[in-house]
Amino acid sequence: MNSVNKYQSLIIGLSVVLGLLFGQLNEVKKIAEYFIVPFLMIMLFGLFLNIPIKDLMKSFSHHQFFSANILINFIWTPIFAYLLGYLFLQNQLSLWIGFVMLMVTPCTDWYLIFTGIAKGNVPLSASVLPLNLLLQIILLPVFLLLFFEKSGGIDSNTLFESIVLVLIVPIVLSQAIKMIFYRLNKSELIDKKLIPFFETSQVIFLGLAILAMFASQSVYLINNLTVVLILFIPLIIFFIVNFLLGRFVGYMLKFSCEDSASLNLTTLARNSPIALAIALTAFTNEPLIALALVIGPLIELPILAMVSQVLLQIRNQS
């Protein structure tokens, strides 16, 4: 983890505070919304540039791990997240949608760092990264429409337009640029210049997008900051239950300590940048959805840090 990404939680928190402060200035508030999508597209371009889509088939080589990852991330978790939302958030539809968006998008970056800290099987964790990315892009709109279309909270046309704009365009552009540069024998420019630059600056662009979002909706958001307390309980329950489920599945499948730790972290860590990019473009009139996705990682990252230490202790005692 580079020096900037070590402070991801701090940068996100600072972006929220600065956004709320700058949003009190009418001149800033009027133009802030026009910067959200460009910052997100730059961030996601850099993220996709570093994801080895060509290695997608490697995900299938460890059949048990692959199957467990798919079942927990894309069958169990969406249903569980929806039920948690029904129990705790049914009177807050926007928060419910934001919570589900966060829960159904497995992480594609920092979970590898926590896997390394826990001394898990990092190559195995990395092998399912392209698959998790592809499936969440395909399935996120499916889950949203399945769970919320009748609620009136989802506009399918806007949802798919936002996916094309902030996901499909960056991923196609990033892979096309990689292919062109590799064919021109300019791979060093990609590997040693562009990818390191975006690895360092990804959280900066995310922070700028969050700042712009909070600045554009500052008054509304200041009046709704109690959502932190509302979201805390379902988030904690999610992490506890999925941690225990991951341990149980790893035990039943007779995974090694390393593989079991990898399963835990690939099924716990969530991909807030992907979900936030969709929320900020598809739900421009529902800032509480985006707020839920900003609050999520502020709670998630300390929990993942604790989980990695617990897994490390379990490994040392085994």
Structure at a glance:
The protein has 318 residues and is an all-alpha fold. The protein has 14 helices and no strands. Helix 2 crosses helix 8, helix 2 runs antiparallel to helix 9 and helix 8 crosses helix 13.
Walk me through the structure.
With 318 residues, the chain is mainly alpha-helical. It has one domain: Up-down Bundle (Na+/H+ antiporter like fold), CATH 1.20.1530. Helix content is 79%, strand content 0%. It contains 14 helices and no strands. α11 packs parallel to α14 (287-317). The longest helix is centred in the C-terminal third of the chain and has 31 residues, at 287-317. It is globular. The mean pLDDT is 84.
Q: What is the C-alpha radius of gyration, as a whole number of Å?
A: 19 Å
Instruction: Encode the helix/strand succession as letters.
Output: HHHHHHHHHHHHHH
| Helix run count | 14
Helix proportion: over 70%
The CATH topology label is Na+/H+ antiporter like fold
Structural class: mainly alpha
What is the architecture at the second tier of CATH? Up-down Bundle
Q: What's the average pLDDT?
A: 84
N- to C-terminal distance: 28 Å
Shape descriptor reads globular
Low-confidence stretches: none
Q: Biggest sheet, in brief? A: none
**Number of E-state strands:** 0
Q: What fraction of residues sit in β-strands?
A: under 5%
- Count structural domains: 1
